[in-house]
UniProtKB/TrEMBL annotation:
InterPro entries reported for this sequence: Adhesion/Biosynth-related, FAS1_dom_sf, FAS1_domain
Coiled-coil region list: none
Alphabetized PANTHER family for the sequence: FI19380P1, PERIOSTIN-RELATED
Domain FAS1: 36-184, 198-337, 339-472, 474-617
Protein name stated in the entry: Fasciclin domain-containing protein
SUPFAM superfamilies attached to this UniProt entry: FAS1 domain
Gene3D superfamilies xref list: FAS1 domain
């Protein structure tokens, strides 16, 4: 047990005698000026001690206290004076206290006086050189402080965090002041204010006998999570009960779970920022992000629903909300929230029940097996319930093919990385001939010109979900022409400029209902702009027909140098490989024009394929 040392005026007598003998020497040096301000006056003159002065004044509002008068008396005193930031930190630690004015009752003012007198050591003006490692000092409050001089001067109170002396030896007429970076708290205050003193999240969990498994898991995880959750934060922690962990482990032990997996599961219960139950209830339902890492190294999404209490990912309910901590808030939950894959997220969101029903209709497991694959990444455009309710399937397409047309395999495409482009979906025209999906980001994110992303970037372990407002039917070649703004002039030519021919109906045929499938060589807007003028309807119709090969789905892999094909107009076009300059291939049209470039290939529709041209093909007008 450490020896209790009480510094008295007698202790300082040898120092005073030495100082006096030195002053008597006639060495030509002027004696130091006499200190005339007392401790209170020194504090009042120090900007960074204004909160201490205010605290003394607030405590003295109680008729039981007269601290300012005491510290203005003869002393001597040694005072450890907390800075303004130290008082701000204390107020942050006290639930419901925003300023010193909140010490508004006599009872609270007396408690404040207890805190303040714990910073005062009566009977001595102890300079830093008088303090030694392990020394104990009895305060005016009655409890003791312990000094540590390792790596500086530190003062140990009843808490786990020491105060450091940041400015030592401020001499006054009635003592000495040492400025410290923390308000010291005696055990009496910790006991009296136990219900309102906030502690870091880790300490809160350690003090809860129903969260022992959580604490053990935090210790077992990578990254020293107990220290992380003692940090500044703020954090919102969903804290599973011991029973929740027992259910999750299902007879296994924490050691049976790979450390990296356990770490991610725990981080999936931590949200950056303070989120109270009232905040969630104000939103109703939606997504936020946890500190776990999902596909693409993005933060994992978590779905909350307040329609019946507060639930997360449809599997875990809050049983004790809004437990305040010094660095955030804790919600105790009744189940461990495992890391969600694409299917888990779809099942959890009640706005996606129609999608889930369609995916699993008749016991179908094709999609759930595919989208649960942990070895692959997916981008899923998930129609909400209203989208399914509005969808009439006008072409009677296979619903499984339609659903597959909402899935991109092999990539997690986040909204920040999307641009006007084509991607391939899991739907197929034929084996290994996947349908294309046109993404446009000019105004939000739209898909094939018919469906808009309404909730972006729902992050799962194996990909990302974007909720959309319309079902994306299987596209025809007309779908892509209309959706892609690079083909707006072509669409105008096929419709407004050629009203006598129903090109849209012809090129929308599918399943053998017309001349499908089609291979369409589609000129861009720039290709049309290169013409001297767009011809009138009589001449334009055969030009447009000269861009379409009927009855064949000719993809780039089917092309070879010198291959020819007969167009709807009747003339042949010829493909030359390789192309010149940056062209993938060159086309020679019916009129013999060469070097017309194919710039993009294999935009695959359900009734044909599009290859993009940088010029307009002209048929032979002499035959």
């Amino acid at each position: 047990m450490k020896t209790l040392l009480r510094i008295t005026g007698r202790t300082l007598l040898p120092f005073l005698l030495i100082f006096a003998s030195c002053s008597d020497d006639d060495d030509g040096m002027d004696p130091p000026p006499e200190v005339t301000v007392n401790i209170v006056e020194a504090a009042q003159a120090t900007a960074d001690l204004s909160s201490l002065v205010a605290a003394l004044q607030k405590a003295d509002e109680s008729t039981n206290n007269d601290l300012i008068t005491a510290l203005s008396g003869e002393g001597p005193f040694t005072v450890f004076a907390p800075t303004n930031q130290a008082f701000a930190d204390l107020l942050a630690q006290l639930d419901g206290f925003d300023s010193l004015d909140d010490f508004s009752s006599q009872e609270l003012q007396d408690l404040l006086a207890v805190i303040l007198t714990y910073h005062m050591v009566p009977g001595a003006a102890a300079m830093s050189s008088d303090l030694s490692d392990g020394q104990t000092l009895t305060t005016l409050q009655g409890s003791s402080l312990t000094v540590s001089t390792t790596g500086g001067v530190f003062i140990d109170d009843a808490t786990d965090t020491d105060a450091q002396v940041t400015t030592a030896n401020v001499e006054t007429s009635n003592g000495v002041v040492h400025i410290i970076d923390k308000v010291l708290l005696p055990q009496a205050i910790l006991d009296e204010l136990a219900d309102i003193i906030l502690v870091p999240i880790t300490d809160l969990a350690m003090g809860n006998e129903n969260l022992e498994n959580l604490v053990a898991a935090l210790v077992a995880a990578d990254g020293d999570l107990p220290t992380v959750l003692r940090g500044d934060g703020p954090f919102t922690v969903l804290a599973p009960t011991d029973a929740a962990f027992e259910t999750f482990l299902d007879g296994a032990s924490l050691g049976d779970i790979p450390t990296e997996v356990l770490t991610q599961v725990l981080l999936n219960h931590v949200i950056s920022g303070e989120v109270y139950s009232t905040d969630l209830q104000g939103l109703g339902s939606g997504y936020t992000s946890t500190l776990a890492t999902g596909a693409g190294d993005e933060n994992m999404s978590i779905f909350f629903d307040t329609s019946d209490g507060v639930t997360f990912n449809g599997v875990s309910s809050v049983v004790t909300p809004d437990v305040k901590a010094l660095n955030g808030v804790v919600h105790v939950v009744d189940a461990v929230i495992d890391l969600p894959n694409i299917v888990d997220h779809a099942v959890a969101n009640p706005s996606l029940t129609s999608l889930v029903a369609a995916l699993t209709d008749g016991g179908n497991t094709t999609f759930t097996d595919l989208l649960s694959n942990a070895e692959e990444e997916f981008t899923v455009f998930a129609p909400v319930n209203d989208a399914f309710a509005a969808f009439t399937n006008p072409n009677s397409n296979d619903i499984n093919a339609i659903l597959a047309n909402h899935v991109v395999v092999g990539a997690s495409a986040f909204s920040t990385g999307l641009m006007n482009s084509y991607v391939n979906t899991a739907a197929e025209f034929d084996t290994d001939e996947n349908l294309s999906l046109y993404i446009n980001t000019d105004d939000g994110v739209t898909l094939n010109g018919v469906s808009t992303v309404v909730i972006a970037d729902i992050v799962a372990t194996n990909g990302v979900i974007h909720a959309v407002d319309a079902v994306i039917d299987l596209p025809t070649v007309v779908t892509f022409a209309v959706a892609d703004p690079n083909f707006s002039t072509l669409v105008q030519a096929l419709t407004e400029l050629t009203p006598s021919t129903d090109f849209v109906s012809v090129l929308s045929a599918q399943n053998g209902d017309g001349a499908d499938p089609f291979t369409v060589f589609a000129p861009t807007n720039a290709a049309f702009e290169a013409l001297p003028a767009i011809p009138g309807e009589t001449d334009l119709i055969p030009i447009l027909q000269h861009h379409v090969v009927a009855g064949a789905n000719v993809r780039s892999g089917d092309l070879s140098d010198g291959i020819s094909a007969t167009t709807l107009e009747g003339d042949d076009i010829t493909i030359n490989l390789p192309g010149t300059d940056d062209n993938i291939a060159d086309v020679t049209d019916g009129a013999g024009n060469t070097g017309i470039g194919i710039d993009a290939v294999d935009v695959q529709a359900i009734n044909g394929v599009i290859h993009v041209l940088d010029g307009v093909l002209i048929p032979d007008t002499t035959n």
